[in-house]
Specification:
Length: 295
């Protein structure tokens, strides 16, 4: 087969850019919040026939695999998106020195937190303090590390404790509902800081404190946490600060997204990413994500 000529490469590049432009237009240049609220109402509609039809259509666009799902009859899209898994489908690494992935995900940007700055994509930095809502919340993670975990629409949508810990505080930050796919991350500055999100503070039994930042997105601005009797969504205005005191075991379910989105995990100095955590890696909940120092 002859090598592609520069003209061929330009045509493929132009086609790719056209597809990206169309994707960005259809998922971002719409009334994002109105569309997200509409999706919320639609997902709660109890109609098994509609759900079966929607899943047939969904399979045309995603690699949807329900072989690991707990047997269930989904009477709404919400029930489908928040489906549980069969017992044992996600073994959790028992090593107490390892912090495991809280969810099924594709690894996005990751690395050290330097001068309060982290990355959403190459060339697109943002301030950790802005993501957390104030500098004091982000300060413990200076010199530590972060990893962005993106859940696709076809993935398992529940998230779990990455270690034995106490969930002692949640901060809710209202915001927009931009798409959080790679196309949008390469185009919208400070996207995670613009979207609705929550900051979960986890004090590990082993010592350090982690932060999990679930970020909502277009069509998925609903986050449920078991430790709080409230559904976090675009119509909810607060309170912003929500103290709590919930002991959780490694692998225990913390909550869920109602469609799919992103969780950013922050760790302080003394915790490092395990080997092989690089952008594009597909992870399952319970697999090693970070390692505590021997000290």
């Amino acid at each position: 087969m002859p090598a592609p000529t520069p003209a061929h490469r330009r045509r493929w590049r132009d086609r790719l850019l056209l597809q990206e432009d169309l994707n960005f237009l259809l998922t971002n240049r719409i009334p994002r919040i109105a569309a997200t609220r509409l999706m919320g109402r639609l997902s709660r509609w109890r109609n098994p026939g509609f759900v079966r039809l929607a899943l047939r259509v969904w399979r045309l666009f995603t690699d949807l695999d329900l072989s690991e799902a707990a047997p269930a009859r989904y009477d709404s899209l919400q029930a489908f998106f928040t489906r549980a898994l069969r017992p044992g489908a996600r073994p959790v690494d028992p090593d107490p020195r390892l912090i495991t992935s809280p969810c099924d995900a594709i690894v996005g940007a990751c690395g050290p937190v330097v001068a309060g700055q982290v990355w959403q994509a190459k060339g697109f930095p943002y301030a950790a303090a802005e993501l957390f809502g104030e500098a004091a919340r982000a300060a413990p993670f200076e010199g530590g590390c972060f990893v962005t975990l993106r859940l696709t629409s076809a993935m398992y949508h529940r998230f779990h404790a990455p270690a034995d810990a106490r969930l002692d505080h949640v901060t809710y930050l209202a915001g927009d509902a931009w798409n959080v796919n790679p196309i949008a991350l390469r185009r919208v500055q400070r996207l995670f800081c613009r979207n609705e999100r929550a900051v979960l503070r986890l004090r590990l039994t082993a010592g350090p404190t982690l932060a999990l930042v679930p970020v909502a997105a277009v069509l998925v601005a609903s986050i449920r946490l078991h430790a709080l009797n409230v559904l976090l969504h675009l119509r909810w205005n607060g309170p912003t600060e929500m103290p709590c005191d919930a002991a959780v075991r490694k692998g225990e379910e913390l909550g869920w997204f109602e469609h799919g989105s992103t969780i950013i995990v922050f760790a302080p100095p003394g915790v490092s990413l395990v080997e092989g955590i690089v952008p594009g890696r597909v992870l399952r909940m319970g697999e090693p994500l970070m390692r505590l120092s021997s000290a």
